[in-house]
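The records we work with from here on pair a chain with its fold. Taken together, the tokens spell out the fold as the letters spell out the chain. To see the layout at work, look at the sequence and tokens printed below.
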Amino acid sequence: MASLLRRQLLHPVYQPIALLEDGSIYAHEALIRGPEGTAMHTPDTLLHAAELEDLNFPFESHCVLVAMTRWGGLREAGRLFLNISADALLKALKYCELDGLVALANQLGISPRMLVLEITEYERVADMDELALAVQEVRAAGMALALDDFGDGRSSLRLWSQLKPEFVKIDKYFTKGISQHGDKLKTIQALQQIAAIFGTALIAEGIETEDDLRVLHDLGIPYGQGYLLGRPAQLPRAQIEPKARVTLRDRTVAVFPEMRRTASAGSISRLAVIKAPHVTLTTTNDELARVFYEHPKLHSVAVVDATRPVAIINRFGFMNEYSKLYYREIWGHKSCMMNANAEPRVIERNHSVDDLVGILTSEDQRYLVDGFIVTQNGRYEGMGTGEQLVRSVTETRIEAARHANPLTFLPGNIPISQHIERLLASGVGFVACYADLNNFKPFNDQYGYWRGDEMIRLLAALCQAHCDPRRDFVGHVGGDDFILLYQSDNWQTQCEAIIAEFGHQAKALFDDSARQAGGIQAEDRHGVPRFFPLTTLSIGAVVVDHQEFTNAEQVASVAARAKHDAKTSDKGLHIR
């Protein structure tokens, strides 16, 4: 490294940072390279060599110097991002080199206001307050600040809050493949909320595909950087890459990925609790009886040691014993623990739904009689009944299904509505299709839920197969109802193909006798036996006029009416 610095063999390259709203070049980041064709060409190798020779500060100072000198000689407009470690920034201020940086900028014809110091390796800073003071001097000199690689596991929310940088670069881990990963999308949406609080502009790093760029654009991320937009080059770019320009000019609304969560995921948030009195290890049977007399609707009582529940006493079982001849005289003053179940069912308020479903389906069904004890952080909170447990689990699963259907894992009602709203807000043309099965109930009644689920999964697979995942959205409303939101021009051909392929493949789910007869004998909704033809598919399609519709509910309502008309059509497809 010392030899490279002495012989001045390092040179800068510049990578564009684009404004994602229109694809224009907003700034360039200066990066350093060593002699081409050598092992010292890449920045990682250079950084490692500088560290081995204890030349970090001279190396970083030289990089800033050559990047600015070259930039000034090019007479380029726009902002220039300069990488500097937090440690090097503190040393520069200590040696008064920040004034020299400003003087050099002015000498080269670069306005300090066009410089952005991109802070790296800030996790090594032991004194954040000292760094915050250094940043004040940077701003006083007219320069802006950026945090690099935020979210890579080393970054600090405290630092973001304390420094309030003008820019934060999102680490490429969260941007790479964002079009396929709902968890990454949710993470970036959370970063957007933090950025809004601190008045920070986000820059998405590592953009390499059109699909990821489209999602980041539709999320409203203001700036982007990556190979798709432009690779590092010795000369600054006037425009981003053609592929990226085409993508940003395309008005197609991105289909956001959904998190793959089942209806049993998460925790119970509204577990019903009876604020019931409790007894202690020293409570007598007579005292317990008075508790039950004073609370005639109380099904069970918890025995609590300090704040921790240790047992449960069932009302019916206890009162049956207490009413026996001479029981009060002999046992009335004894501890109530003689009637207690020392292995009660205890449920935390934020218990996972998966565990609660396991309780409902387990062989141990004592909670149906005794109920269960509810705790908060292990402390006694109250009592619950088996009925309340079933209701709480059911409500939680229904709520989760509104986000992702548990059978097909396709987006549920809430993501469907959100995507329709995004389409309406964009003004882009789209077609809303409502798909529904004909004669599905008699099929389900005849063959059972397992084969019924197979038919629904078949429909889900065909809908996905005949949709472009980058342009078209497939949602599962529930049961055998699906919503398809097409931006593809060939939507009618695709709908006709879904209907035809379903009609062919669904026959395999019927028995031979039903296939030969063309249907099955089953009871209708009124209990009257009659013949039902083989299950087919109907799709109602609505070509959305943005002047006619203002919200997702209106679109869904008209699509449902179109589906109703489709069910009376011989073709199976009705276009409104």
About this structure: The first helix runs from residue 2 to 6.
